[in-house]
Amino acid sequence: MLKHFMGLQWKSFFRSATFKTEIWFKILMALGALYFIVVFLGMGVGAFFLIKEMEIGDPLRVVNQFMIYYLAFDLVFRYMLQKMPVTNIKPLLYLPISKSKVVNFSLGKTIISFFNIAHAFFFIPFSIVLLTQDYPPLQVIGWHLALMALIYCNNFINVMVNNQNVVFYVIAVLFIVAGASQYYQWFDITVYTQPIFDFFYDIPWTAIIPWVILIGLYYGAFAYFKKHMYLDGGLAKKQTEAKTENLEWLDRFGNLGTFLKNDIKLIKRNKRSRSAVIAGAFFIFYGLLFFTGALEVYDGPFWKIFAGIFVTGGFLFSFGQYVPSWDSSYYPLMMSQNIKYREYLSSKWYLVIIATVISTILATFYIYFGWEAYAAVLVGAIYNIGINSYLVLWGGAYVKTPIDLTSNKKAFGDKQAFNAKTLLLTLPKLALPIGIYAIGHFLINPMAGYIFVAVFGLLGFVFKNKVFTMIEGIYKKEKYKTLLAYKQK
Amino acid sequence: MITAYNLTKTYGENTVLNIEHLEIPKGQSFGLVGNNGAGKTTLFSLLLDLIQPSSGHIINKEVQVDQSEDWKPFTSAFIDETFLIGYLTPEEYFYFIGELRGRNKADVDALLSNFEDFFHGEILGQKKYLRDLSKGNQKKVGIVASFIGNPEVVILDEPFANLDPTTQIRLKGIIKDLAAKEGVTVLVSSHDLIHVTEVCERIVVLNKGEIVKDIHTSAETMKELEAFFAG
User: Fold this and answer.
1) A265·B91 Cβ contact <8 A
2) With contacts defined as CB-CB under 8 Å, which chain A residues touch B128?
3) CB-count exposure of residue B67 (10 Å: 0-12, 13-18, 19+)
4) Interface test with A, best of B87, B94, B129, B132 (most A CBs within 10 A)
5) How far is A239 from chain B (nearest CA, A)?
6) Rounded Cα gap, residues B216 and B203, in angstroms
7) Across the interface, do B89 and A243 touch by the CB < 8 Å criterion?
8) Is the separation of the CB atoms in B197 and B217 below 8 Å?
9) Alpha helix (H) ranges present in A228-340?
């Protein structure tokens, strides 16, 4: 039986419609995975010595102190990215296979997920380092096994709470509040959680407790899925009660308003687009890494421009990048309706511009870090509006992978995120402004660098009509290919 | 109204459509029948400029469809569910199409009121998004949306499939009225010979991409078609 399941998995992977065309993406995925492995490995080996050097206490205890954040972050990360095992169960339902087997296989599959394996690259080397540093083996092993169980507990918790946004947001908010209050020293959650993790080390046999919890969670997940394996149960598409919204205040923008209304609904009502926008909003805080001097590597002058572009361009990168794929599921409608390409494109353009302006206003708090920080943000915004807004639309013409709006998984863990042409187009989005700044910075002074970038952005703004005609031409040329590609889900 | 000249579509070696000349006058109800793979949807997709012809072209009211977008204001269609926007409610979808076609809410509401019995109380005010409606109800929404904005050409691919008998009968009435009373050119494809012979003044049979029969519907049409398809 297992053989059959494995065979199906294998075929679904290699025979997927986009497998051959997206080989680029697979390579990138592999590189991404490799990157994480290296990071985890580096952390695993280096963490001990790093903490020791910082002299903030026994490295193991320090790791234990922050372990709660590690686990919480893992859970949030999983929630956003880990794929659920229930897909493709439908065709198996009426076949002579017992439900328990199907559920066991689906759950078992999650065990070998990268989201679990990756942690091994941290914990195994870290434990080995502990052993070489003469920590008592029995205690280290107990601690190691306990944490392994906890990672897997996260796995099954995620399986169970998946698609329950409320739970997710509650956890995420608690996590952020705890982190913030620790930073400002109001309340330190780790005081209460550290003893738990220390406990597994001090009394190694207690490692059995997380294992018991893990087994409990597995059976919980098992029972949950088995009970809900009906088309009108767990396998049913979740229906939300629909509310008709008019958004009449947008009517004054004429045809443009029609599209904007639609885009707002698109963002509000679909999981995938919602998470893209939320991810974009987080970019506003990305600049903190640069301007607070938190990370030394980011101290160079060019990084300020880099930060400025990202702070104001979060929406542009997370949402704008995938125009027109957001409309992929009804692209034939858009192409045969009474719509001019130009109107369609300008509505997307305005959406990006509006979001950029809002981000710029929200980012006003960077003034706190000095005029130069806010100047970088402003200049970044001007460049985003003047140049990058065109570049994302241009790149969009080549993005031919349909987006499944209703699914949040694969948000960037899947082929939709990359292709060679869009990757090439990210260069002018980021490298060009840094280059322009560098010219001004070195030839005259930092101020001139900012002015150069801003002038460049304004120039782009002036040539809007010309650029739009060009982009419109590309979209028209690519139209039939795009339609064909969107058909192949 | 619509004329196709030397229209072909080939994929590799495979010619899926080859129409030397086809003319559809204004106000005609035009039926397209043929087995799977006969080229019905290909022809409709060419009419909507969703695919490019390999040779030849189509003129829709003096506009060459693969050259200019000016046919869009007076042409509407429902081909399949890719013509629906899943995350809108039916009302929002109708208003959206209405706005694109220069119709305000009141105009759309007035049009929709004519279709109340067609909707059978399952479409409007249901608090459901289009993606959560049943296939048949989705189809009803798509078909009615294609009537918004007084189009001169309406293209419906397999409009009868997936519909319940009551709705099929109502739809037949609607299509007949459109052509007869309002002078709308209606293009319909179907696998169901009875439906097309009832609805359409003219029936064209496609077989492997070529027109093999072009019949003005009469009492004998049904027999003629059955004889052809029985082979």
Assistant:
1) no
2) 239, 241-242
3) exposed
4) B87
5) 7
6) 6
7) yes
8) yes
9) 255-269, 271-282, 288-291, 302-318, 331-336
Contact A332 B129 (CB under 8 A): no
**Among A285, A350, A277, A275, CA closest to A311:** A285
Q: Which residue of A has its CA nearest to B124?
A: A244
Chain B hits for A243, CB-CB cut-off 8 Å, are 89, 127
Residues pairing with A488 in the sheet: none
> Do A337 and B100 make contact, defined as CB atoms within 8 angstroms?
yes
**Chain A, window 376-405: residues with a beta carbon less than 8 angstroms from a chain B beta carbon:** 405
| A488 lies within 8 A of chain B by CB | no
Nearest to A335 among B50, B95, B100 (CB): B50
- Strand B202-207 and strand B29-33: the pairing is parallel
CB contact under 8 A, A239 and B132: yes
Instruction: Tell me the C-alpha distance between A314 and A355, whole Å.
Output: 9
Report the candidate in A272, A248, A275 with the shortest Cα–Cα distance to residue A260. A248
Question: What ipTM did this prediction achieve?
Answer: 0.85
Residue pair B96/B88 in contact by the 8 Å Cβ criterion: yes
Q: Tens digit of pLDDT per residue, chain A (489 long)?
A: 677 777 777 776 666 655 555 566 667 777 877 888 888 888 888 888 888 887 777 888 888 888 888 888 888 878 777 766 655 666 777 777 777 888 888 788 788 777 888 888 888 888 888 888 888 888 888 888 888 898 899 888 888 777 666 777 787 788 888 888 877 777 777 778 888 888 888 888 888 888 999 999 999 888 887 877 776 666 665 566 777 777 777 777 777 888 888 888 888 888 788 878 888 888 888 887 777 766 666 667 777 888 888 888 888 888 888 888 888 888 888 888 888 888 888 888 998 998 999 999 988 888 888 888 888 889 989 999 988 899 888 888 887 777 777 765 444 444 444 455 666 667 777 888 888 888 888 888 888 888 888 888 899 888 888 999 999 999 988 888 888 888 875
